[in-house]
Amino acid sequence: MSTPIEELNLNIRIYNTLRMSGIRTVEQLRKMTIEELYKVENMKREHIEEIARSIIRPL
Q1: How far apart are CA 43 and CA 32, in angstroms?
Q2: CA 46 from chain center: how many Å?
Q3: Checking phi first, is residue 36 left (phi over 0); if not, alpha (psi -120 to 50) or beta?
Q4: At how many degrees (to 10) do helices 45-55 and 12-20 cross?
Q5: pLDDT, tens digit, for every residue of 1-51?
Q6: Of all helices (H) and strands (E), which one includes residue 37?
Q7: Which residues share a beta bridge with 32?
Q8: Rg (CA), the chain
Q9: Alpha-carbon torsion 55, 2, 37, 32, what sign?
Q10: By C-alpha distance, which of 37, 22, 20 is closest to 55?
Q11: According to the model, what pLDDT value does residue 57 have?
Q12: Within a 13 Å sphere around the CA of 51, how many CA atoms are in the beta-carbon half?
């Protein structure tokens, strides 16, 4: 089962940037490297940091 990125409750700009680049699921994000994320148009360091915080949750 694929978890949609909507469930991450990301900033709307980050959400829209991901959707425009074809990224729809959390699983897709987890497979990407930081270098690949930087290649996404309009992706900034702050966006990547927020994505990382949303994906990696403390136990």
Answers
A1: 13
A2: 11
A3: alpha
A4: 90
A5: 689 999 999 999 999 999 999 999 999 999 999 999 999 999 999 999 999
A6: helix 34-38
A7: none
A8: 10
A9: positive
A10: 37
A11: 63
A12: 27
- Collect all residues with Cβ–Cβ distance below 8 Å to 17 and sequence separation of at least 6: 40, 41, 42, 43, 47
Cα separation of the two ends of the chain: 21
Which pair of structure tokens corresponds to residue 15? 């959400």
Residue type, 10: L
Structure tokens at 59: 């136990």
Instruction: Give the CA-trace dihedral at 19, 23, 48, 26, to 10 degrees.
Output: 120
**Contact status, residue 33 vs residue 51, Cβ threshold 8 Å:** no
